[in-house]
Design brief:
This protein is mainly alpha-helical and 188 residues long. Strands 1-2 form a two-stranded antiparallel sheet. Strand 3 and strand 4 form a beta hairpin. The radius of gyration is 25 Å and the shape is elongated. The chain folds into two domains: 47 residues, no CATH class; 121 residues, no CATH class. It contains five helices and four strands. Helix 3 packs antiparallel against helix 4 and helix 4 packs antiparallel against helix 5. The structure holds zinc ion (ZN) (2 copies). One zinc ion binds next to loops.
Amino acid sequence: MDPGGNGQSGAVLTCYKHPKTETRLRCNKCARPVCAKCIVRTPVGYRCRECVNVQQKAFYAGFRPIHYLIALVVAFPLAVVAGWLIPRLGWYAIFLGPLVGVGIAEAARWATRRKRGQYTWLVVCGSIVVGALPNLLTSLLLLFALGGRMPGGPGYLPAGTIRLIWGLVYVLMATTSAYARLRGVTRP
Ligand SMILES: [Zn+2]
Ligand SMILES: [Zn+2]
């Protein structure tokens, strides 16, 4: 283990894949010399592609495509309920949005037995966006199509505006926090 990779005095290293390319870098896992093209920068130092692949396979071990479906089945209903409810609570959306995002992300992780999938974040964030659509679309409908003409009159216009704004705030808050939560645990 020599992260610097420049241990031997005088020895000219050549990349293990490109014998003609001289290098001063070594993989900090298997210690083979690797050229700048072949090296991969990871949170734990410079590694060769093979070591990175082995590491990634271990990281995602046990994850099956069915887990995406399980994540969807759990995340989507929650996202539909939250997407309809939260924008109606006004400015609470500012702090409920992130809570809901993390909550749905954790529910999906729990349902998939914490197996890590590369695109679980996409399933969860997609659910949050689609789940928020009924509120956003009906808000838009109130605003533009029916606005002034609805019985009850001008009261509908601000209502639609406010729900639209909090709906957008909620989606933004929930997706970014779910993304941050899941990317953190699904990337080696
Ligand atoms: Zn290596
Ligand atoms: Zn190389």
